[in-house]
Amino acid sequence: MTDSGSAAALPGTTSSGHRPENLVLGAALITAAFFCVALVGALAKQSGTYTSTGVLLLFQNAIGLLFVVPVALRGGRSTVATGRFGMHVLRAAMGTACWYALFFAITRIPLADATLLTYSAPLWMPFIAWAVTRQRVAGATWIGAGIGFVGVILVLQPQGHSFGLGSASALAGALFLALAMMSVRWLGATEPVIRVLFYYFLLSTVISVPIALADWEPIPRQAWVSLTALGVAQLASQTLIVVAYRYASAEKIGPFIYSVIIFAALVDWVVWNHRPSLVAGLGMALVIGGGLVAVRVRRRSG
């Protein structure tokens, strides 16, 4: 899901000040980051049995903000001064919409399916790039995207289930995520990591407050631990992605984004006993393979 300077989801990361390359360490860190992303989904599914999607969203962002603000402000006004506030708003809005769509989806379909559909975002990026820039997209990129979409279809109906609201929400999340990823890439040209993180968590928290209030449900005592863990896991994923890009370039470790699909499938199997069928497993492989083809061709041509 990462492209030059983009990270996850949700994730608002760019690279600045690379250390000497250590590809093994960079790959390990980025894999750990996407394990945390899968953990966010699992914790949201667990916490969602106690409270609303809006509350999940608020906790996820507010806890990250509590940690990021002191770091950002320690660097003085220059650390947060920006001439690209509108792009930061776009990135936060799309990221927040993506997470809301994913959190909503996992209450209705298995975690693995919701994660795969949302993280099919790189397959949508050639369409969005073409629509925005009108630049020619390499034929191999379209082929890779096509392979991935065949995988999406297999995952959507591995057992003949109808296309429902949960699947629609996860696919909408993929479009939001693709836009968020592209906005982070555009921000990466001028904005340092801490500034991107600061505005992401700040603006996402501001956006989350009215959503949480409109969707408010009392938070039972047993939910506080999982909600706090949700926010910490989100913050950990962002931090690990930032550190990973200091040891290796996005071009080399970006494809590790797809590890989140494998982690989510394993968690779904172990915790909720949702064992993926052979057809669903084939669909996951096609999404991952098609995404890797599309991303690698786009980087070589870009």
Strand residue percentage: under 5%
**Separation of termini?**
16 Å
The structure class reads mainly alpha
**How is the biggest beta sheet arranged?**
none
Radius of gyration: 18 Å
Task: Average the pLDDT over all residues and give the rounded result.
Answer: 81
- Which blocks of ≥5 consecutive residues have pLDDT under 50? 1-18
Number of strands: 0
Count helical runs.
13
Architecture overview:
The structure is a single chain. Helix content is 74%, strand content 0%. The chain has 302 residues and is mainly α. The chain has one domain. Helix 2 (53-74) runs antiparallel to helix 9 (193-214), helix 6 crosses helix 7 (139-156) and helix 6 packs across helix 8 (165-187). It is globular and about 50 Å long.
